[in-house]
Write a structure and sequence with these properties.
The chain is mainly β and 728 residues long. Helix content is 7%, strand content 43%. It starts with 30 loop residues before the first helix and ends with a strand.
């Protein structure tokens, strides 16, 4: 189960507990109620696992969530809190959901309604004021209301915070500048360079003159990243270097003329904090709640405790180089990025991985945070910016090169990124800064803008879930028709082609035109699993989920233009790579339908062939053919039917029926081959099965019928004819 995030409760009026699910309960929660709920939660945990299953949650905790909540509402609340659909809820998941839902309701808006827009300033800068090299780092200095950009050309430049007009250029030398920071206590701008220098510049009177410089000496590495460690006694400058060492400077800011750093028994200009990294340090940051955090090209992130004077935790969730990280104090989590395309989310105190932000197609080089909205901004090597909601782990916005301001030179290819909380902007830069304003937009209540490829009713949450080709998945309230949720670009740039639910209708499975299959928590848009295959990435036209209770085996089936049926057994991993195939079709598979009670899977293809398989072994049971005019043989829909329990007529044996949509004729053929007249099938052409199927459960239209009775497989296609084939 996914690791929950931590929040600190605020004092509230003592009444009833907010459930986040409506039902007339009050929206207030105080510390006494929290303690009471904690005691009830622990008592409800019969097995002592620290987690409640759905029955424990409903029966033991449910009565304390408000008298107006029905059992169905409590059930739905459990499923919403259980964001990873793991079947259990722990205490931190529960409290986190309650606080976040109430905060969102109090604000009257959702965090999803914020977007980045280019901030159009009249560019009054001459072309000559831009950096000659790429800007590797940019930061905002609130005291002087200036953006500071540092570059490989050996200079730093200041830009007005109001309109990004160039203010001044200061050249340190010819060496590549590696990092920069502002020291508010000393009112100095500090920069490190590839020549191992650490330079201090006055910012007090606006002179920006060099006031001191020291050099890393001897075998010391090149300073790579700077941070300030602050406490009651003042501020100390700490840097990480190219050898993986973290050092604290003890010397003053007015070391002039320039000199080397000294560390002897008589005199110490610096202290070695730790040497735990094996490669250069990409970022070092002082996080008062956690400690001194450093990331490295060696793929690790270390947390150092100054009190215990040692590294107390190591994050090893990255397999390759780590480029940077941000700390979200509201949720007590880090978001870190690197060579891998996913941004890793992990808990600050335990270093336990709690999820990832997946969607980039190239290495993520920069990550920034809006701590007010808890939005994460990421920039990848292919110059794509994404905006993420840390609460739901969903991508809210994607900005590609097509969205950048088209100019001469290379300004449409950003190289660095930071978030300015004072002006509520994202600043990007190549050789000069560009601003993106972060602002609230009107809540979007529109539906689909592209053709809808699936529509499912969810009996668990009593909602309708729809999905379109563009990857927009919408959740609709069935009572008032209002959209209750939406997430976009489920398959990125590929088209979404098919959808289904899992056996409990808790999760949504989607298939794409690029051969991908994903599993989602459709209530919050979190992607839970990826099902992969090594075949050619052709479009998938059908997907379904089938469960065999006898074998305790759940599987996802997908088929399409590969002419194969892909089968993945659902496992605990978030990436399922083991699969098998059912092969036998010569043309594109257009649809399929499963009947787990009889262990049957029917697939139809473009040339009219219908193959019936053993659902679990893949053994072929029979083949049927649509016979129609050329190019009209395609099987568009398949559906398994069986007689109602009230139909006890012995003549209702497995049969083959055909029904024309034009003449409304129907033929029933018995086992002996004799044809009989039969009633017309009512509106079968519109029938399709999309959803999950469960062995031994009651199927729609089947009620509590005996599973040993005969079944009917209906198919329809381009010939305008619906056909039925019997199977006993």
């Amino acid at each position: 189960m996914a690791e929950p995030v931590n929040t600190t409760p605020r004092s509230k009026q003592p009444d009833k507990v907010s459930s986040g699910g409506g039902g007339g309960v009050d929206d207030e929660l105080n510390l006494d109620q929290l303690k009471m709920l904690k005691e009830v939660f622990e008592e409800a945990d019969d097995d002592g696992s620290g987690e409640l299953d759905i029955n424990e949650f409903i029966d033991k905790l449910g009565p304390h969530l408000g008298g107006n909540l029905t059992r169905d509402q409590i059930t739905q609340l459990f499923m919403k809190i259980d964001a990873d659909a793991g079947g259990t809820v722990d205490w931190e998941e529960f409290t986190n959901y309650m606080f976040l839902e109430r905060a969102q309701e109090a604000s009257g808006t959702t965090n999803e309604n914020w977007r980045l827009f280019p901030q159009d300033f009249k560019d009054r800068n001459d072309p000559g004021v831009s950096h000659r090299g790429q800007v590797d780092h940019v930061f905002y200095c609130e005291v002087i209301d200036k953006y500071v950009t540092i570059s490989r050309d050996g200079s730093f430049r200041l830009w007005n915070g109001v309109d990004l007009k160039h203010f001044r250029t200061v050249t340190l030398g010819s060496a590549w500048i590696t990092s920069g920071i502002y020291m508010p206590g000393a009112r100095k701008l500090v920069f490190t360079s590839a020549d191992r220098s650490i330079s201090y510049y006055e910012a007090n009177r606006g002179s920006y003159e060099l006031s001191g410089r020291v050099y890393a000496s001897g075998t010391m590495g090149v300073p790579q990243s700077l941070t300030l460690v602050t406490n009651e006694s003042g501020e100390q400058l700490v840097y990480g270097d190219s050898k993986g060492e973290v050092n604290m400077l003890l010397c003053g800011t007015r070391e002039w003329p320039a000199r080397d750093l000294i560390s002897t028994d008589e005199h110490q200009d610096y202290l070695s904090v730790h040497k735990e990294h094996s490669d250069w340090i990409s970022q070092v940051e002082w996080v008062p709640d956690i400690g001194l955090v450093s990331s490295s090209i060696d793929s690790s992130i270390k947390i150092y405790d100054f009190v215990r004077e040692k590294v107390i935790n190591t994050c090893n969730h990255h397999l390759k180089a780590v480029y940077g990280f941000v700390w979200c104090s509201a949720y007590s989590i880090f978001a870190s990025c690197g060579v891998e395309r996913d941004v890793i989310l992990w808990q600050g105190n335990t270093c336990r991985r709690i999820g990832e932000l997946s969607g980039h197609t190239a290495s993520v080089t920069h990550v920034a945070l809006d701590s007010h909205l808890n939005h994460v901004f990421t920039l990848s090597l292919d110059k794509v910016i994404k905006v993420w909601d840390l609460r739901t782990h969903r991508c809210l916005q994607t900005i590609t090169q097509d969205d950048w301001k088209k100019t001469e030179d290379t300004e449409s290819k950003p190289h660095s990124l930071m978030y300015d909380s004072f002006h509520k902007r994202v600043i990007t830069a190549v050789n000069k800064p560009h601003a993106w304003i972060h602002k609230l937009v009107a809540q979007d209540r529109t539906g689909h803008m592209e053709p809808v490829r699936g529509c499912l009713y969810n009996s668990t949450f009593h909602v309708i879930v729809t999905a379109d080709e563009g990857g927009a998945v919408c959740v609709w309230n069935i009572n008032n028709g209002q959209r209750e949720g939406r997430f976009l670009r489920a398959h990125g740039d590929a088209k979404l082609s098919a959808i289904c639910f899992d056996k409990n209708e808790r999760r949504l499975v989607t298939a794409g035109s690029d051969g991908t299959v994903f599993m989602w928590n459709f209530n919050n848009g979190s992607r839970l699993k990826v099902f992969e295959h090594a075949e050619e990435k052709e479009e998938l036209t059908a997907v379904l989920y089938a469960a065999d209770d006898k074998r305790e085996s759940d599987a996802v089936y997908a088929a399409g233009w590969n002419c194969k049926v892909f089968v993945w057994l659902e496992e605990g991993d978030d990436k399922v790579e083991d699969y098998r195939t059912f092969e036998g079709h010569r043309e594109d598979i257009t649809h399929m339908a499963a009947f787990p009670e009889k262990q049957l899977l029917a697939t139809g293809d473009y040339e009219g062939r219908i193959t019936v398989w053993n659902l679990f072994s893949g053994e072929k049971r029979m083949s049927l053919f649509h016979r129609a005019e050329r190019y009209e043989t395609s099987v568009e829909r398949l559906m398994w039917l069986r007689p109602h329990p009230s139909q006890k007529d012995a003549s209702l044996k497995p049969s083959l029926s055909a029904c024309s949509g034009l003449s409304h004729r129907s033929i029933r053929r018995s086992n002996t081959g004799t044809s009989h007249a039969a009633p017309a099938v009512a509106a079968p052409a519109a029938a399709s099965v999309n959803g999950s199927l469960k062995s031994g459960s009651e199927q729609e239209g089947g009620g509590g019928s005996d599973s040993r009775g005969p079944m009917l497989l209906l198919s329809c296609g381009g010939g305008g004819v619906v056909r039925g084939g019997g199977h006993s």
